[in-house]
C-alpha cells in the first residue's frame, strides 16, 4: 500500500468513525440536505406533472375540436376566472349550429354530479348528457353492450352508458353491470353499455367513473333544458377559422359578444399553460426557499461541528498536519455527509413520485436533481471546509486552547 | 557541543484587553544542545509552557528568533514548519491533548499519518513495541478517556516518540501522577536520552524531578535567571 492510499483510507476511516460517534449530528446535517433536495425535486416534479396532466386531459378529446362556452374567457382570465354560468345555451342554438354546413359535428353538453346507486352500492359520479356524438368527441368505445344512439335521444329512453370503474364499484365487475339498472335521484335507468377503460391518470379515471345519458332523457334533471357547452368539430384543421367565424355569427344572433366564447383546444391549452407557468414559478420559488432554509440548517450544523473540533484541529496541526491535510479531512467528511443526505433525499423523492404517478403524472427531471444536489452539497461542503480553514490558520496552540 | 535549538531575544506578549498587555516571556535567549537532558523549572505562571510552545514551533514569539539546527525558522513556510513539528519535535502536553475519539494505538500513530518522508519502520508495529515497553499494550484499543491519567501520560509520550524525533519537549510529564509513576516516567525519558541520544527538555515545578536531570534552566516571571 502506498503512503497516499494509507492516508486516504485513514481519512475515510476517521470520517466514518466520527459519524458513528456523532449519530445525532450526522443525522441532522444529512436531514437538512435531505429536506432541501426532497423539496426542490418534488416541487418541480409536481409542477411538471401538472402541466403534463393538463395536456393529457386535452389529448383525450378528439381533433379539430372547438368549444363554445358561456362567458367571456379573455375577460374572465384577467378578472379571476371565466364568467361561467351567467348565460346558458338552448336547444334553439343547437339546431342553428347543426344547420351550419361547415360544422361536421355538434355535440351539446349538460353535465352535473349525482349520487348514482345500483347493486348494493352507490357512488358520486359525473353525468354527461349529450347526443351519441359525445362518444366520438370523448374517444369512447363500448367494452360490453353498446353505446346509445341518436334514436335513444329522441325517444328519451331511460338508459345509460357507464364507465367500467363505476360498474365495478356498483355491481362487482364491469361486465356484471350490463343489463342492470342504476338509480339517479329516484329515477331508474337501464345500463346498456360499459365503456372501455382509459386506464391510468386522474382524467381518465374520471371518465371511467362517468355516466353518459341521452341529453333529452336528462331533461328529468335539467328541467330548463339548458345546454352548458357545445363541442363543434371541423372536417379539417384548415376549416377551423371559417367554422369559428360562422359559429360566432350564429351565436351573436342570440347573445352579446361578451356573453360567450369560442375557443380552440390550442387556445385553451395555451391559456391554461400560461396560468400554470405562474403556478410553476411559485412552486420553484417555494423550492428555492426550502433549499435556502435547508442550506442555513446545514450551515449551522457544519459550523458548530467544526467549531467544537477546533481543539482536535490544533492537536493534529501540533503533530505535523499541514493546513491542506486538515482541509482535505473536512472536505471528505462534508462530501460524505452531503452525498449521504442528498442521495437519501433523492431516493425518497423517487419513491414518492413512484407512488403518486398512477394518480398524477409527476416526473423528476435531471435539471432539478442536479440543482438540488449541487446547491445542498455545495453549501454542506463550503460550510464544512470554510470554518476548518479558519481553524487551520490559527497557531496550533491557539486552536488547542480554543473553547 | 552542537546546538539543536537556539532562541534569541524572544519576547511573548499577550494582548489582554484593549490596551493592557501582558509580557509572558521577556528577552529570553537559550540554547539546547544535542543529547542534553535538561529541566525547565519555575513557579506556576512563570512562562514555562509558553517558552516550550515557542521552542516546539507551536506558537510564534512576538519578537525574537528561533534557530533549529542553526537554521532561522522565520523564513520557513507553514508547510516546512509543519514538517519540522512532525519529524523533528516530539511534544508531550501538560494536558496530554489526546484525541478521545481515536483509540490509544490510533492516537500513537497519528503523527505518522502526516509524515511526508518514507518511514523505515511499520508504524503499527513500532506503536506496539512502545506500548509493550510502557506497559499499556492491553489498552491499545481503548479510548483515552477510559484509561487512567498515568496511562494517558504514557500514550502521550508514546505518540511523541513514534516519529523518532531528535527532540522531546515534555510539559509537566509527572504533574498528574503519583510519585512512583512519576519517577517511572522520568526514568523512561532518561533511558530514551541515554540509549537513543534524544535531546529531552522536561518542564516541571518540582525540584525532585529537576534533580534527576543534568541541566536546570530556571525561569521566573518570564525571564531566565540561570541555566
Ligand atoms: N493565551 C494567553 N492569553 C493571555 N495570557 C496568557 C495566555 N497564555 C498564557 N498566558 C499567561 O502567560 C503566563 C505564562 O503562562 P504559562 O502557561 O507559560 O505558565 P507556566 O509556567 O506553564 O505555568 P504552570 O506551571 O501553571 O503550567 C501566565 O501568567 C499566563 O496567565
Ligand atoms: Mg504550563
From TrEMBL, chain A:
Pfam families assigned: FtsX (PF02687), MacB_PCD (PF12704)
GO molecular function: transmembrane transporter activity
Membrane-topology annotation of the record: Multi-pass membrane protein
Subcellular location: Cell membrane
Bilayer-spanning residue ranges: 27-50, 282-306, 327-356, 362-386
UniProt keyword annotation of Nucleotide-binding present: no
All residue ranges annotated as the MacB-like periplasmic core domain in the record: 26-249
A cellular component annotation (GO) from this entry: plasma membrane
InterPro entries in UniProt: ABC3_permease_C, MacB_PCD, Macrolide_Exporter_MacB
Keyword vocabulary terms for this entry: Cell membrane, Membrane, Transmembrane, Transmembrane helix
Major location category of this protein: membrane
All copies of domain ABC3 transporter permease C-terminal, residue ranges: 285-396
Family, similarity comment: Belongs to the ABC-4 integral membrane protein family.
Designated name of the protein: Multidrug ABC transporter substrate-binding protein
Organism of this sequence: Candidatus Roizmanbacteria bacterium RIFCSPLOWO2_01_FULL_38_12
From TrEMBL, chain B:
Keyword Cell inner membrane tagged: no
Pfam families: ABC_tran
Keywords: ATP-binding, Nucleotide-binding, Transport
UniProt key word ATP-binding: yes
InterPro entries the record matches: AAA+_ATPase, ABC_transporter-like_ATP-bd, ABC_transporter-like_CS, MacB-like_ATP-bd, P-loop_NTPase
Every ABC transporter domain range: 5-227
Assigned GO CC terms: membrane protein complex
Gene Ontology molecular-function annotations: ATP binding; ATP hydrolysis activity; transmembrane transporter activity
Family: Belongs to the ABC transporter superfamily.
Protein name: ABC transporter ATP-binding protein
Amino acid at each position: 500500500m502506498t503512503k497516499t492510499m494509507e492516508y486516504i483510507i485513514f481519512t475515510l476511516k476517521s470520517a466514518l468513525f466520527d459519524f458513528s460517534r456523532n449519530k445525532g449530528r450526522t443525522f441532522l446535517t444529512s436531514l437538512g440536505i435531505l429536506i432541501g433536495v426532497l423539496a426542490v425535486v418534488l416541487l418541480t416534479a409536481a409542477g411538471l406533472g401538472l402541466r403534463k396532466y393538463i395536456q393529457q386531459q386535452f389529448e383525450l378529446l378528439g381533433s379539430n375540436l372547438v368549444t363554445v362556452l358561456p362567458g367571456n374567457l379573455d375577460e374572465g382570465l384577467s378578472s379571476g376566472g371565466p364568467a361561467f354560468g351567467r348565460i346558458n345555451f338552448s336547444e334553439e342554438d343547437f339546431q342553428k349550429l347543426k344547420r351550419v354546413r361547415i360544422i361536421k359535428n355538434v355535440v351539446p353538453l349538460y353535465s352535473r354530479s349525482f349520487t348514482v346507486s345500483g347493486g348494493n352500492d352507490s357512488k358520486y359520479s359525473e353525468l354527461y348528457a349529450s347526443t351519441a356524438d359525445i362518444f366520438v368527441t370523448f374517444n369512447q368505445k363500448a367494452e360490453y353492450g353498446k353505446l346509445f344512439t341518436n334514436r335513444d335521444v329522441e325517444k328519451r329512453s331511460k338508459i345509460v352508458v357507464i364507465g367500467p370503474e363505476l360498474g365495478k364499484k356498483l355491481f362487482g365487475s364491469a361486465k356484471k353491470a350490463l343489463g342492470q339498472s342504476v338509480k339517479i335521484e329516484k329515477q331508474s335507468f337501464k345500463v346498456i353499455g360499459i365503456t372501455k377503460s382509459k386506464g391510468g391518470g386522474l382524467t381518465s379515471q374520471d371518465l371511467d367513473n362517468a355516466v353518459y345519458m341521452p341529453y333529452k332523457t336528462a331533461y328529468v334533471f335539467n328541467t330548463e333544458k339548458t345546454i352548458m357547452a357545445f363541442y363543434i368539430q371541423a372536417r379539417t384543421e384548415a376549416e377551423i377559422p371559417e367554422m369559428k367565424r360562422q359559429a360566432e355569427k350564429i351565436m351573436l344572433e342570440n347573445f352579446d359578444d361578451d356573453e360567450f366564447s369560442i375557443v380552440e383546444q390550442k387556445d385553451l391549452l395555451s391559456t391554461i399553460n400560461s396560468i400554470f407557468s405562474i403556478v410553476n414559478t411559485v412552486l420553484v420559488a417555494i423550492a428555492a426557499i426550502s433549499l435556502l432554509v435547508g442550506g442555513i440548517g446545514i450551515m449551522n450544523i457544519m459550523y458548530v461541528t467544526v467549531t467544537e473540533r477546533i481543539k482536535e484541529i490544533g492537536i493534529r496541526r501540533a503533530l505535523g498536519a499541514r493546513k491542506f491535510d486538515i482541509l482535505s479531512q473536512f472536505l471528505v467528511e462534508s462530501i460524505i455527509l452531503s452525498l449521504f443526505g442528498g442521495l437519501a433525499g433523492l431516493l425518497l423523492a423517487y419513491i414518492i413520485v413512484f407512488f403518486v404517478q398512477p394518480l398524477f403524472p409527476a416526473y423528476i427531471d435531471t435539471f432539478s436533481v442536479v440543482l438540488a444536489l449541487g446547491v445542498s452539497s455545495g453549501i454542506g461542503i463550503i460550510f464544512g471546509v470554510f470554518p476548518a480553514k479558519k481553524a487551520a490558520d490559527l497557531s496550533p496552540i491557539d486552536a488547542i486552547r480554543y473553547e | 557541543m552542537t546546538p539543536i535549538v537556539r532562541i534569541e531575544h524572544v519576547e511573548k506578549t499577550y494582548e489582554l484587553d484593549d490596551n493592557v498587555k501582558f509580557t509572558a516571556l521577556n528577552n529570553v535567549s537559550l540554547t539546547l544542545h544535542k543529547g542534553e537532558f535538561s529541566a525547565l523549572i519555575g513557579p506556576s505562571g512563570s512562562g514555562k509552557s509558553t517558552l516550550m510552545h515557542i521552542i516546539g514551533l507551536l506558537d510564534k514569539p512576538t519578537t525574537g528568533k528561533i534557530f533549529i539546527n542553526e537554521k532561522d525558522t522565520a523564513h520557513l513556510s507553514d508547510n516546512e514548519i509543519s514538517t519540522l513539528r512532525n519529524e523533528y519535535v516530539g511534544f508531550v502536553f501538560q494536558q496530554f491533548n489526546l484525541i478521545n475519539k481515536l483509540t490509544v494505538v490510533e492516537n500513537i500513530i497519528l503523527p505518522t499519518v502526516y509524515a511526508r518522508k518514507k518511514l523505515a519502520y511499520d508504524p503499527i508495529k513500532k506503536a506496539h513495541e512502545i506500548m509493550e515497553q510502557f506497559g499499556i499494550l492491553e489498552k491499545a484499543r481503548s479510548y483515552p478517556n477510559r484509561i487512567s491519567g498515568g496511562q494517558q501520560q504514557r500514550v502521550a509520550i508514546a505518540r511523541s516518540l513514534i516519529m523518532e524525533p531528535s527532540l522531546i519537549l515534555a510539559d509537566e510529564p509527572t504533574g498528574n501522577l503519583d510519585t512512583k509513576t512519576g519517577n517511572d516516567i522520568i526514568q523512561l525519558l532518561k533511558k530514551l536520552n541515554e540509549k537513543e541520544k534524544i535531546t529531552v527538555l522536561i518542564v516541571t515545578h518540582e525540584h525532585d524531578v529537576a534533580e534527576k536531570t543534568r541541566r536546570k534552566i530556571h525561569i521566573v516571571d518570564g525571564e531566565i535567571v540561570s541555566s
